[in-house]
Amino acid sequence: MSRAALICVITTVVATGTLETQCTPSVLVTYFSQTGRTQVMADAVADGARAVTGAAVTVLPIDSTTTEHLLAADAVILGTPVYNGNVAPQVLAFIGRWPFLEGEMRDKLGAAFVTAGGMSAGEEATLLSIHRAMLVHGMLIVGGADWMSAFGASAVTEEPPFTPPPGTIDEVFLAKARGLGQRVAGIAHRMVCP
Question: Which end of the chain has fewer CB atoms surrounding its CB within 10 Å, N or C?
Answer without folding.
Answer: C
